[in-house]
Amino acid sequence: SSSASGTAPAGLTVVLALVGVGTVSRGGGKLLVYESDARARDPGARFQVNLIVTRRRGALYTPHGLDLPRALAAIQAGSLDGYGEAQLDEDALAVLREGDYDVLVENTPTNLDDGGPAMAHLQAALGRGKHAVTANKGPIVLALRQLEALAKAHNAHLLYEGTVLSGTPILSLHRYGLGGCAVTGVKGILNGTTNYILSQMEAGMGYDEALAQAQQLGYAEADPSADVDGWDALAKVVILANAVMGADLTVDDVAREGISGITAKDVQDALAQGKRWKLIGQARREGEAVRASVKPTQIPLSDPLAGVGAAMNALTFETDVLKSVTITGAGAGGPQTGFAILSDLLELARRLRI
After folding, report:
1. Which member of 130, 137, 236, 275 is catalytic?
2. How far is CA 207 from CA 40, 130, 228, 308, 309, in A?
3. Cα separation values, 162 from 53, 67, 94, Å
4. What digits encode the pLDDT tens for the residues 85-138?
5. Left (φ > 0), alpha (ψ -120 to 50) or beta: where does 218 sit?
6. pLDDT tens for residues 192-233?
7. Known catalytic membership, residue 130
8. Fewest Cβ atoms nearer than 10 Å: which of 3, 74, 157, 325?
9. What is the largest CA-CA distance in the chain?
């Protein structure tokens, strides 16, 4: 089934190692469980999970494929101990350096300071010629070029659709749908929490009340700074600039301003002028350079981004041939990010058969 080089021709099983099995991997896991149902799937690829490593609930390995529904149920119940076989004591890094698998699916929590622990996990897998799929923004923001070079040196693929707009297929749209265009800029609503807050303020709420409601609904964390101060959107802008526009930006290259300074009066004043406040992340080519920013912006109601309400996200590609192309969709959530993981796995299966 799995091969030492990490490749799987048509009809063979692709063996997965899941590391970090939180909401994202549970969403992706559930999709994998139902891969044989009536929805469009790749008939030439069967995905088998041999290895699961969690931070607090234990680890499992079997060479014959885990019973994924049972393993996911055990994780949700709080521990893999009840699964009943092949418990592992080794840490994730040791397993990834020595275990037998074709693809690492890495979804530990995002860390934008040093990318850990995901960075080490991806390096361990790619350095062995294993493919990697991740929805973790940290390593892709901090070291995309280095990880791509490592993958290339070992004939491996690195895919990360879920790092930008979760299940909304931004990177694959660019790769295939816009393949004949040069992208001169991207701009969008890249954070659903701030979009929800601004939409509620438009409906008459104050900032503090709208934020509290976003927290109550689970859109915003107890510490909402990653969202409201623009850090989440900034990470996505860096990935977009580097992956879509060939830039080599770092976090420090992006001017950042959050939404906490926007008042109810600001929102109503903009509406009176036929405009709407949105937190806009953008990157634009200026000569040889790519300039990027995240800041609250008044956009005219005629702009496609103006009609994107609640916790939805959207991105406009500025291109030479088609001019503006906008895609809208959900930007967060377990099932959505799980879908991004599954779509990356299907893309990987397609590449391995070419």
Report:
1. 236
2. 43, 46, 11, 19, 16
3. 20, 25, 26
4. 666 666 788 888 988 999 999 999 999 999 999 999 999 999 999 999 999 999
5. left
6. 999 999 999 999 999 999 999 999 998 998 999 999 999 999
7. no
8. 3
9. 65
